[in-house]
């Protein structure tokens, strides 16, 4: 065991944690490591941390040196106080149970029951989440009018039935108790009537819109654009600005540079055999992430890999940060962000030398122009990587396979445009990997009408089929968010703005600090801020009014690919809020209600909805039934219809000119040269709280970051080498992380923040996430982490040169990377197993990974050393071991050929048996499952203090391991929920049989029986059992303060009524979403079908439902045709901890990497 | 030296064991009987905001249970009717009855519920704990009648609980059906024909078709997937 080895480590000085283990240490370095400290061997304080679930001891509150402080924070009790209360409560219990039958409970039926509601049966409504990159269609579950869970809309092209972590958490966002409940004027409660009067008065002072500025997050859907158009017509001097810090401005501008205004490029990664992610974390963020992630996974799905491992796709990542995409990549090149453009230039030059641009892009002349632009003033820093990548791309494309270059938002437009040219050279625009789409396509009916009109000699609008006001709201060429905000700031500073309406964004916080928007805002006469919460902008505004959440108001929205969706409310505004559309309508003098306004747009403006029936159908689907995306051929005039042919003519003109334009822009692109003294700091939107908008969302705050595993915190991330050079010593400490604090200076602004060592970050680069350090986020998000917006460059460029010095202080960071640590992913068999001589001496890691070559050479590599192996599609014991078991009498322990637990009394499971398979090849660690599980299963958050004790309650955790070199490691993502072992070690140790199996193989957890001994958690080999140390769900109403009761009121509305809300003192864990299993059975029973023989796909657990890459399969393992059985039948299927003979129902498919032979 | 204890105390050791034994037995019986849902829950009969008589409506007039409890076949909850359902009739029938005071306050002149009408605060009688997930539809659709759990509602002027609704009581039936042959249990007592009428029949099993149904019921009980006796069947 690794643990035993650790005891032999020559202990290193606790203060010198970066020192290597001294020579001659007995300890063998683990192959898979959780942290640098794990790889190196923990220091003195951590010898006992390894594989210890409770490094602080069972009740740290009572014994901690800072007990008072800890107790104050966690609401815990001292022992004596606990005894007193226990005595009192028992006495009271004696009194009350004798006299009172039970609390009287009321049944409150409807007065008039809505036709579509059946109490107890949830309804599902299609709507759309108007995200930063366009709408994502979702289906929302509603229990008697309360939306409780967000799931993807399978009909929507931006969702395809999947969601990401933020979509899942949006429902909590709506129930946030910190939301504004009434209008506030200068910090004093007011009323809507007063606000209306005040706004009317203010607007009168802006004749013709002179002095009126409106700041919105995005142009929004057709209806909002129609209203904006009316404002612009009636008040011609009014200015409208759009500020969305997460907007994909560079992506849009890059596409416009290559293909002309309004055009966008869409990638279909499922058709690409080689994918190069250039500073792009496309599996977890950015436009179209769900489709891109699904496309990426399609090329490495289990059937593809099993049938023909060589057909697997290959992902290269060139990036500065170590992102989830980098972790999923087969090869990764670490490059500081400022040099990534150069890496792409080198790649382009190399590729174009062998595959010129197609004729439509200017052919040979353009090719040489681009090559010269890509080689001038440029030194290839990684010639070997670039050369190998070129060879691989060319070979693959010549073999008729597709290749795709995906450029990330952090890169400037010209790098995006270069990526498009490279895609063109690789033939991606010919084989369907990449396609140009015609901006925001209007509806088919409208387009046809336009061309019919044109054929008759009519005067069409300039932008073809798009109504004029669409063109207004989406100006072409595209103007970026930061440019918009700069323009607004200048107007404010110039005294040109008398009335400023901010509907949604929070520029006083989430904007580059150098812009000093807050100061500029104070110069406007009246500032109206409408937002979910009284945030930084709201607090500084004259008026702060409540804004609706998208689940509360009618609107429509446009997806990244141009699909138009209806945003249908699921609930009336909780706090009497108004939507941005309603506020804009008020300014425009439109009296129509939002619902009618949207309907009017769809019927008249889009012309797609003919009558009420069609409107209802569109509502049902959530989007226009016709295909919205219109691909434009790159050959002029060859479009599928009149519209695309018309657009293709324009595009062809731009494309022919594009190379020279792009070449010129590229020449101006100067590479950076960071060093340890002047390092490069790269900015990113936080994985959890984005730009800060989700800072008050407790689910997201407590969700660990995909790579650093930081939660409730942000930090400056840097590689161990740079940290060493700078003398920074951050290290793991018990369940948390002791981090050196540094002063980071960008320009003349300094922030003080802790350093977290993230192996794999590019040399001389530090990465910091914006979105933390909010001061007016609310109860959850206030003063969590450090604000990096203050050093964010004003021009929106996502990197800057910075200086760094240590403050000499160390502070505690909250990271879960050491939590629930198993005995090392690189564990050796247990010693007693070796003595038992069961033929399991081979190393059986928890995480099994291999390359395509290894897999081809030995198809059964994942089965090596396993107690059970896959044979004829099932995990069975090999015959030689069976022979022993069949022999009869149970042999004495220690006899050869026996696993620890006997196998002869294993229950044979017949009929419908539930099981899960998780494909580690396609899991990207995006954490959508973690959030989906939290949302579905009423999992409470525990707060930062409790996470520091290792008490988080997530039913799924994603263990992240590193392999290899400390500076250039590979990373693995290992999602672990309850394995539902058939021989579950948790069950025999429970004194009250609160955890037992059912006949369908589910390891049930019966909360009302649990007495909280935690023996099961102790005996769980994979540490998936969670204990409710406190009443985290706040179910004990009598013990709550008034404030807690008030907060709970809305939070409770989110709870799923089909899942028990757990009280303190019980263990909980993954139930395979038993409520969904039961619901499927009940459905079958009601329909008179067989509930013991449900069809495949009748049950989809929340995690599998959300998984963008479909890595999680669930179903009947006794049905050979089910998806899960097919996955389990592959030779890569393996059991964790097989040698314990726990027979887990959740098995994993070994991860297969597909490295290129030239890179090894 | 004077005796500390008087002489009669010598008898205590002799008397104590039987007395303690009786006391112990009584205490055991007391807890077993008076603390069980058979005593604590059965017979619960709270006063309702509207003195609605099931005897009159379901019994004397023979209204089907599902006229008001509409969801019983499709939802875990049978459902308590909305005020509108009451007003369907009582806007015309006996609209001045003093018993309908609450209802009259909730409606306008035309008999529609007022916009600000309040929900009728019925007292809950039949309740299983929040952590137990009972499903009406699953029982009704396999032929378990209303009467099995709710008793002769058609004879109750004020509804009361007649069964303990405890876990042990639930399991009794679930086990009996599984092993009815061994236990000498008659499936027809609880399983009724799936003809959409028998389910709500309050006279069952004293019904004319009972004897004819005995054999088919046994047959069905054999074919029936055994009802769950597993924890996860109801607890999640």
Characterise this structure:
The complex is a heterodimer of chains A (1160) and B (236). Chain A has 1160 residues and is α/β, with parallel strands linked by helices. Chain A is built from 37 helices and 42 strands. A seven-stranded mixed sheet of chain A has the order 7-6-18-17-16-8-9, sandwiched between helices. In chain A, strands 22-27-23-26-25-28 form a six-stranded mixed β-barrel. In chain A, strand 17 (526-531), helix 21 and strand 18 (543-546) form a beta-alpha-beta unit. In chain A, helix 9 packs across helix 16, helix 13 (337-354) crosses helix 15 (383-398) and helix 16 (413-425) packs across helix 25 (642-667). In chain A, 57% of the residues are buried. In chain B, 39% of the residues lie in helices and 1% in strands. The longest helix of chain B is centred in the N-terminal third of the chain and has 23 residues, at 12-34. The A-B interface holds A 97, 101-102, 104-113, 118-121, 996, 998-999, 1002, 1004, 1006-1009, 1058-1061, 1071, 1074-1075, 1078, 1081-1082, 1085-1086, 1088, 1090-1092 and B 35, 40-41, 44, 46, 71, 73-77, 79-84, 106, 113, 117-124, 127, 129-133, 135, 137-138, 141-142, 225, 228, 230-233, 235-236. Strand 2 of chain A pairs antiparallel with strand 1 of chain B.
In summary, what is this structure?
Chain A is α/β, with parallel strands linked by helices.
Question: What labels would you give this structure?
Answer:
heterodimer, A: 1160 residues, alpha/beta, seven-stranded mixed beta sheet, six-stranded mixed β-barrel, 42 strands, 31% helix, B: 236 residues, mainly alpha, 11 helices, extended
């Amino acid at each position: 065991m690794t643990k035993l080895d650790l005891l032999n480590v020559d202990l290193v000085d606790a203060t010198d944690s970066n020192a290597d283990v001294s020579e001659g240490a007995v300890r063998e370095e683990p192959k898979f490591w959780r942290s640098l400290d794990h790889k190196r061997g923990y220091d003195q304080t951590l010898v006992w941390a390894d594989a210890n679930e409770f490094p602080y001891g069972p009740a740290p509150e009572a014994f901690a040196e800072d007990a008072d402080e800890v107790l104050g924070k966690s609401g815990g009790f001292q022992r004596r106080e606990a005894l007193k209360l226990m005595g009192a409560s028992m006495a009271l219990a004696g009194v009350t149970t004798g006299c009172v039958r039970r609390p009287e409970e009321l049944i409150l039926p409807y007065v008039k029951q809505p036709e579509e509601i059946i109490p107890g049966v949830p309804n599902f409504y299609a709507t759309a989440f108007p995200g930063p990159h366009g709408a994502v269609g979702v289906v929302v579950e509603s229990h008697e009018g309360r939306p409780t869970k967000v799931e993807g809309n399978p009909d929507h092209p931006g969702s395809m039935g999947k969601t990401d972590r933020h979509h899942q958490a949006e429902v909590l966002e709506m129930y946030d108790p910190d939301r504004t409940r009434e209008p506030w004027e200068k910090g004093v409660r007011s009323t809507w009537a007063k606000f209306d009067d005040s706004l009317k008065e203010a607007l009168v002072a802006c004749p013709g819109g002179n002095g009126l500025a409106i700041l919105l997050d995005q142009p929004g859907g057709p209806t909002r654009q129609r209203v904006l158009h009316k404002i612009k017509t009636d008040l011609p001097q009014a200015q409208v600005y759009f500020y969305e810090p997460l907007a994909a401005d560079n992506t849009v501008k890059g596409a416009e540079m290559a293909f002309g205004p309004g055009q966008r490029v869409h990638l279909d990664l499922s058709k690409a055999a080689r994918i190069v992610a250039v500073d792009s974390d496309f599996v977890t963020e950015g436009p179209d992430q769900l489709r891109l992630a699904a496309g990426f996974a399609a090329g490495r799905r289990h059937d593809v890999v099993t049938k023909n491992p060589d057909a697997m796709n290959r992902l290269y990542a060139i990036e500065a940060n170590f992102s989830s995409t980098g972790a999923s990549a087969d090869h990764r090149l670490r490059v500081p962000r400022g040099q990534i453009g150069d890496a792409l230039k080198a790649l382009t030059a190399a590729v174009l030398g062998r595959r010129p641009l197609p004729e439509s892009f200017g052919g040979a002349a353009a090719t040489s122009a681009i090559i010269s632009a890509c080689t001038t003033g440029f030194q290839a820093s990684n010639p070997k990587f670039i050369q190998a990548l070129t060879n691989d791309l060319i070979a693959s494309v010549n073999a008729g396979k597709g290749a795709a270059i995906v450029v990330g938002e952090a890169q400037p437009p010209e790098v995006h445009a270069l990526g498009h040219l490279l895609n063109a050279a690789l033939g991606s625009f010919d084989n369907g990997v990449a396609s140009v789409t015609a901006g925001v396509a209007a509806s088919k009916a409208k387009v046809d009408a336009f061309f019919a009109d044109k054929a008759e000699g009519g005067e069409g609008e300039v932008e073809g089929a798009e109504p004029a006001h669409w063109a207004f709201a989406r100006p072409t060429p595209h103007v970026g968010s930061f440019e918009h905000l700069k323009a607004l700031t200048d107007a404010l500073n110039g005294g040109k703005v008398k009335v400023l309406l901010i509907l949604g964004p929070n520029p006083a916080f989430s904007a580059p600090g150098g812009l000093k928007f807050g100061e500029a805002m104070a110069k406007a006469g009246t500032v109206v801020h409408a937002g979910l919460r009284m945030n930084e902008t709201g607090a500084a505004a004259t008026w702060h009014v409540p804004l609706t959440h998208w689940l509360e108001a009618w609107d429509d929205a446009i997806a990244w690919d141009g699909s138009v969706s209806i945003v249908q409310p699921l609930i009336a505004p909780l706090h009497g809020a108004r939507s941005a559309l309603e506020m804009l309508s008020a300014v425009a003098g439109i009296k129509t209600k939002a619902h009618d306004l949207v309907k009017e747009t769809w019927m008249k403006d889009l012309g797609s909805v003919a009558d009420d029936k069609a409107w209802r159908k569109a509502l049902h689907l959530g989007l226009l039934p016709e295909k919205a995306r219109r691909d434009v051929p790159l050959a002029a005039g060859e479009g599928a219809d009149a519209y695309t042919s018309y657009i293709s003519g324009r595009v062809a003109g731009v494309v022919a000119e594009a190379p020279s334009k792009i070449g010129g822009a590229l020449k101006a692109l100067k590479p950076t040269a960071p060093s340890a003294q002047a390092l490069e700091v790269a900015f990113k939107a936080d994985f959890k709280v984005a730009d800060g908008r989700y800072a008050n969302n407790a689910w997201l705050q407590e969700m660990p970051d995909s790579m650093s595993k930081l939660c409730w915190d942000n930090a400056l991330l840097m590689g161990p080498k740079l940290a060493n050079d700078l003398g920074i010593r951050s290290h793991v400490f018990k369940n948390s992380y002791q981090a050196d604090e540094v002063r980071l200076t960008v320009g003349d602004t300094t922030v003080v923040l802790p350093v977290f060592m993230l192996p794999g970050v590019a040399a001389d680069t530090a990465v910091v996430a914006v979105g933390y350090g909010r001061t007016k986020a609310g109860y959850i998000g206030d003063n969590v982490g450090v604000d990096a917006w203050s050093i964010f460059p004003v021009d929106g460029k996502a990197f800057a040169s910075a200086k760094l010095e240590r403050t000499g202080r160390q502070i505690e960071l909250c990271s879960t990377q050491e939590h629930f640590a198993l005995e090392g992913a690189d564990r050796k068999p247990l010693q007693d197993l070796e003595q038992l001589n069961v033929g399991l001496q081979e190393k059986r890691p928890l995480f099994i990974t291999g390359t395509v070559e290894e897999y081809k050479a030995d198809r059964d590599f994942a089965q090596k050393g396993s107690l059970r192996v896959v044979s004829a599609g099932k995990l069975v014991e090999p015959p030689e071991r069976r022979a022993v078991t069949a022999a009869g009498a149970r042999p004495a322990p220690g006899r050869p050929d026996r696993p620890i637990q006997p196998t002869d009394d294993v229950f044979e499971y017949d009929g419908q048996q539930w099981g899960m398979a998780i494909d580690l090849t396609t899991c990207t660690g995006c954490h959508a499952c973690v959030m989906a599980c939290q949302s579905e299963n009423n999992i409470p958050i525990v707060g930062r203090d409790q996470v520091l004790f290792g008490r988080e309650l997530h039913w799924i955790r994603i263990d992240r391991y590193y392999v290899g070199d400390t500076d250039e490691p590979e990373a693995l993502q290992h999602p672990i929920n309850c394995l539902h072992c058939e021989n579950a070690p948790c069950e025999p140790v429970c004194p009250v049989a609160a955890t037992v199996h059912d006949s369908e193989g589910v390891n049930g957890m019966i909360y009302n029986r649990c007495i909280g001994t935690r023996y099961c958690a102790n005996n769980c080999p994979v540490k998936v059992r969670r204990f409710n140390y406190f009443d985290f769900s706040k179910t004990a109403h009598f013990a709550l303060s008034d404030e807690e009761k008030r907060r709970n009121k809305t939070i409770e509305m989110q709870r799923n009524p089909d899942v028990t809300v757990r009280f303190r003192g019980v263990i909980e864990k993954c139930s395979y979403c038993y409520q969904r299993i039961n619901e499927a059975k009940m459905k079958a029973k009601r329909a008179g079908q067989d509930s013991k023989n449900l069809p495949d796909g009748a049950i989809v657990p929340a995690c599998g439902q959300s998984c963008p890459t479909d890595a999680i399969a669930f179903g009947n393992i006794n049905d050979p045709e089910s998806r899960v059985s097919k996955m389990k039948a592959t030779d890569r299927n393996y059991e964790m901890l097989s040698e314990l003979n726990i027979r887990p129902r959740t098995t994993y498919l070994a991860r297969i990497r597909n490295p290129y032979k030239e890179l090894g | 030296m004077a005796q500390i204890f008087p002489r009669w105390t010598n008898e205590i050791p002799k008397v104590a064991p039987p007395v303690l034994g009786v006391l112990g037995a009584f205490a055991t019986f007391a807890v077993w009987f008076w603390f069980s849902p058979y005593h604590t829950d059965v017979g619960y009969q709270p006063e309702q905001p509207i003195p609605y008589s099931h005897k009159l409506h379901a019994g004397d007039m023979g209204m089907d249970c599902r006229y008001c409890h509409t969801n019983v076949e499709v939802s875990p909850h049978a459902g308590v009717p909305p005020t509108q359902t009451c007003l369907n009739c009582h806007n015309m029938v006996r609209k001045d009855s003093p018993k309908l005071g609450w209802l009259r306050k909730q409606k306008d002149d035309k008999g529609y519920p007022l916009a600000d009408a309040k929900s009728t605060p019925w007292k809950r009688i039949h309740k299983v704990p929040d952590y137990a997930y009972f499903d009406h539809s699953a029982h009704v659709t396999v032929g378990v009648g209303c009467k099995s759990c709710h008793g002769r509602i058609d004879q109750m002027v004020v509804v009361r609980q007649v069964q303990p609704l405890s876990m042990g009581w639930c399991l009794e039936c679930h086990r009996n059906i599984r092993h009815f042959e061994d236990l000498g249990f008659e499936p027809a007592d609880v399983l009724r024909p799936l003809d959409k009428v028998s389910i709500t029949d309050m006279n069952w099993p004293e019904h004319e078709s009972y004897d004819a149904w005995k054999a088919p019921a046994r047959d069905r009980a054999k074919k029936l997937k055994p009802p769950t006796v597993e924890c996860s069947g109801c607890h999640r």
